[in-house]
Amino acid sequence: QVQLVESGGGLVQAGGSLRLSCATSERTFRSYVMGWFRQAPGKEREFVAAISWSAGSTSYADSVKGRFAISRDNAKNTVYLQMNTLKPEDTAVYYCAAKFGNRVVTTAYEYPYWGQGTQVTVSS
Q1: Which residues touch 66 (CB under 8 Å, ≥6 apart)?
Q2: Which of 30, 86, 82, 28 is nearest to 60 (CA)?
Q3: Degrees (nearest 5) of the Cα angle 24, 30, 34?
Q4: Taking phi first (over 0 means left), then psi (-120 to 50 degrees means alpha), and beta for anything else, what does residue 49 get?
Q5: Which residues of 39-59 are buried (b: 16+ CB within 10 A; e: fewer)?
Q6: What CA–CA distance (Å, rounded) separates 21 from 43?
Q7: Which backbone phi and psi does 109 adopt, to 5 degrees?
Q8: Is the pLDDT of residue 25 over 80?
Q9: Which of the four pLDDT bands, split at 50, 70 and 90, describes residue 12?
Q10: Cα–Cα distance between 3 and 1 in angstroms, integer?
């Protein structure tokens, strides 16, 4: 079973940056699609970004296009979410997710594997 370990969350001021990391020990990680989702208090889980590990194809939510970037490091078995120009509305718990395949998926229910989440708080 795929296990995901997240890190990099924290408290930043509006306009600042954070880089989230999602590490996996899965030996066949190159056969997976990796995604980032977020959930703010009182709101449903929201798609942020996704990447096909093998192909590098990416997808972004409209709300983060131009500000966030998803990438992967094959040597470190790690997926990153670089978040720039952060806004207070980006405040949420951010989750790393994975599913087997090579086609990018943007719906949460399609992902069977999830990390525990990391809190990102952006102050005004």
Answers
A1: none
A2: 82
A3: 60
A4: beta
A5: eeeeeebebbbbbbbeeeeeb
A6: 23
A7: -65, -15
A8: no
A9: very high
A10: 6
